[in-house]
Amino acid sequence: MIPVMEFRQFTEQQPAFRVLKPWWDVFTDYLSVIMLMIGVFGCTLQVAQDKIICLPQRMSSNASELDLKSVLHVQANASAPPKEMKGLKTNLDIQQYSFINQMCYEKALHWYAKYFPYLVLIHTVVFMVCSNFWFKFPGSSSKIEHFVAMLGKCFDSPWTTRALSEVSGENPEEKDSKKNSDLALSPGEGILEKSPSLRSIPEKIVADKAASVLDKKEGEQAKALFEKVKKFRLHVEEGDILYLMYVRQTVFKVFKFLLIIAYNSSLVNKVRHRVHCEVPIQDMIGYKEFQCNHTMAHLFSKLSYCYLCLVAVYGLTSLYTSYWLFYRSLKEYSFEYVRQETGISDIPDVKNDFAFMLHMIDQYDPLYSKRFAVFLSEVSENKLKQLNLNHEWTAEKLRQRIQTNGNNRLELQLFMLPGLPDTVFELSELQSLKLEIINNVTIPASISQLEDLQELSLYQCSLKLHLTATSFLKENLKVLRVKFDDNRELPNWMYGLRTLEELYLIGSFSTDASKNIVLESLRELKCLKTLSLKSNLTKIPQSIVDVSSHLQRLYLHNDGTKLVMLNNLKKMTNLIELELVRCDLERIPHAIFSLTNLQELDLKENNIRSIEEIISFQHLRKLTCLKLWYNGIMYIPEHIKKLSSLERLYFSHNKIEILPSHLFLCHKLRSLDLSNNDIRFIPPEIGVLQSLQYFSVSCNKIENLPDELFFCKKLKTLKLGKNSLSILSPKISYLAQLTYLELKGNHFEVLPQELGLCRALKSSCLIVEETLFETLPSDVRDQMGAE
């Protein structure tokens, strides 16, 4: 007998695959097992028992003789005493009967009656293989294996349970406050218990080190699951091979059902008990016709009708499956009910094979889809990242990264983190927070704990503020720096910062910035004193002029874009500092001459070649610093002498060849930078600058230094490098306050020993070739090397 378990290999699949088998597949599997048992049972009977039994049939010519003998036999028996009954003798032995049975089985018995069990067995195996083919086909089985593995991990993940239990309609801050009140009061005191928010989890975990380690491990596992689900979704949503495979195998089963019903219904009556057999073997055994009995005809007839009923039920189930496949849109799946039930509103809808597998899972248990949806939500992923981030960046670790910035504030800089750790808001001493390339940053109400926070820098960060955090920043923030790629990325809450004094914006605005709503909003910043724009403006927006009543410093770095229509500058009369850097200016804008309060002007990296307009600067009585460096200026006009209030003058990186003596009539000059020009001669009038402390003529073509230079006894920094000097006057000793001297790149052969009289000059601030330094007396070298 053939065990049914031998056919297990046709239907065997991983137990986990059961989640993709809806009720109709399970039902048809059981029907297939029953049909398989019918086929196996029939095949076993065919092998174990005689198939047919035949007896020879007398010839018609002997019939009268047979009847006469029968009559005489009956009369003799009537008068004679009773004796044993005997049948008709055929004079055939057992081998002849076996031969006749075999011949009649092959020739006279209908093929359906002979092969019915085998047909049942074959059709059933085909049904079983077809039902599970998509689990075995390489193109679909790999996707199913990955999906089922991820589904099980997502279902069992502690993060799934935690996320579903913690999502509610309340704000995180409200949940935090309720959580704290729950800790203070017992539930029996009238406080309604609430699930703690994700932000409260680290506080509980810190108290329990064992739990902290466990939760951290769970968090890392969940983080890996999010990445797997994301990549798997991108891969599976590209095609619909699983859907097509399932549709094809269902259509094939329906076609198979119709075929089986059609031919079985017409042939089931061919299974008969008595079979007339006529074979031409009379010369061998003396008989030609036989009457045969099909011993299993009755059983096969019952089995065939039973089989037809099972196939009919199987087929109707397959028809229902086809209706389900074509009536519903199975290539799209909506998580609307999950979003409503869980409150996770950002769970995306899916399509193609991903959607089809989720529809199949819903037929098994909708809870799987609900728990799996947690790993499709960006909100859930961000909360998990936040939890892991809090574990990684503790308050102690962040405190070690605090440094003092250029504004003498305690600053914490965070770069390319997946989010903002909540532990940042435990650093109460923090005064400045700098965030670079951090996405999905949410500032909670707990920022109010940073009472000393005055400066915030956001470099390519997407930021959201809680309402309480917005109110806090409006009342406390003094300095804001924002770097963006598109002006639409600028945070809207920026324009309501009532106490903001300094605003630094770096990024590209729209072409017509004057009509830009973003810049229009700047007029609301009533306390703004400093505005820096590193962008691509073509003209100064009217919105900047609107804040001119309190704006004192304006920095425009235009990245080479030509700035035209500067007349608006005339209205900004309160400016004390103005920078127009890389604005492609060819002349000094006349509008600047109306800024009577201007103290510092920087026109760096423009295309200015002539500065004849410099005479108009005489009206700017308060101008103390003029920077015309990195331009193409060929000469300095004599009108420079009119700028008697100048204290710092920068002409470096130009094309100046001659220094006019009138330049040195600006007797208040303390810093004069003429480096990187083509100057060959320094006028002796330089000695007039008795207040000069910084003088740089490096990278020129100077061959001699006037002795009058050394009469500037307040000089602290003297840069003479990369010239054509060959002699350094001993009068260098007059510069007793000299602390920095650059001589490298000249033609000196020896240094004067009078350098030793410059007591403030140390070897570390004497920039000269090593061999040239060795020409100094050893006592001078020792003196310079001493601390």
TrEMBL record:
Chief place of localization: membrane
Protein's cellular compartments: Cell membrane
Gene3D superfamilies: Ribonuclease Inhibitor
Keyword terms: Cell membrane, Disulfide bond, Ion channel, Ion transport, Leucine-rich repeat, Membrane, Repeat, Transmembrane, Transmembrane helix, Transport
Alphabetized PROSITE patterns for the sequence: LRR
Residues spanning the membrane: 30-48, 115-135, 241-264, 305-326
Membrane topology: Multi-pass membrane protein
Catalytic activity field: chloride(in) = chloride(out); taurine(out) = taurine(in); iodide(out) = iodide(in)
GO biological process per UniProt: monoatomic ion transmembrane transport
Keyword Protein transport: no
Region described as Disordered: 166-194
InterPro entries in UniProt: Leu-rich_rpt, Leu-rich_rpt_typical-subtyp, LRR_dom_sf, LRR_domain-containing, LRRC8_Pannexin-like
GO cellular-component term (any): plasma membrane
Biased segments, Basic and acidic residues type: 172-181
Lyase recorded as keyword: no
Domain LRRC8 pannexin-like TM region: 1-321
Homology family: Belongs to the LRRC8 family.
Name of the featured protein: Volume-regulated anion channel subunit LRRC8C
Lineage: Eukaryota, Metazoa, Chordata, Craniata, Vertebrata
